[in-house]
Amino acid sequence: MPPPDIRPPDDPLAERRRRFEEIYAAGHDPVLGYALRRTANSHDAADVLAETFLTVWRRLDDVPPGEQTRPWLYGVARRVLANHHRGERRRLALGDRLRADLAEALQDVAPAEPHPVTEALNRVSEDDRELLTLTAWEGLDPGQIAVVLGCSRNAVRIRLHRARRRLAREMERHGGAFEMPAPRVAVVKGDNA
């Protein structure tokens, strides 16, 4: 009696992955070139390329073999580009409408004199301005700012202290009186025995 066939069963996912990789390797450069010639910048082209190959992965069983693969990829890329351009037109139309609404709302408002704090804030570094506005305008505490900036809470406290001092110097330098606000202290409510 012959020995049983000991080959491992076919792995359908491995076969699917292999087929996708072959299509990707052969189609990447042509589809990227197609997208680059039809978009405003390389970032948009990269988005179109990614969306095209995501569609390929989802519809891998529909991809025709051989010489028909590349035209099929161009067809997918063409539809992705159409969606991209429609989305771009919607974003531009929304931006135009918002600008018009804002202009209409502000037409009766007289321009205000710049506040000395705003002027001083514009003279400090962008990093200092970000820290100060995250605290003052967004109302974030140092722990929350640490999450936004991707650093430690202690680093935020140190940077914030230095940014406040630089802002105060800018205020003094240009004739504005500026008093540093007292740090907020958390009050814990409980039994007072």
TrEMBL record:
Q: Can you cite an annotated GO cellular component?
A: DNA-directed RNA polymerase complex
Q: Which InterPro entries match?
A: RNA_pol_sigma-70-like, RNA_pol_sigma-70_dom, RNA_pol_sigma70_r2, RNA_pol_sigma70_r4_t2, RNA_pol_sigma_r2, RNA_pol_sigma_r3/r4-like, WH-like_DNA-bd_sf
BP-aspect Gene Ontology terms: DNA-templated transcription initiation
* UniProt keyword annotations, A-Z: DNA-directed RNA polymerase, Sigma factor, Transcription, Transcription regulation
MF annotations from Gene Ontology: DNA binding; sigma factor activity
Gene3D superfamilies reported in the protein's UniProt record: 1.10.1740.10, Winged helix-like DNA-binding domain superfamily/Winged helix DNA-binding domain
Task: Quote the SUPFAM superfamilies the UniProt record gives.
Answer: Sigma2 domain of RNA polymerase sigma factors, Sigma3 and sigma4 domains of RNA polymerase sigma factors
Domain annotation RNA polymerase sigma factor 70 region 4 type: ranges: 117-167
Query: Where is each RNA polymerase sigma-70 region domain found?
Result: 24-91
**Family statement:** Belongs to the sigma-70 factor family. ECF subfamily.
For this entry, the protein name equals DNA-directed RNA polymerase sigma-70 factor
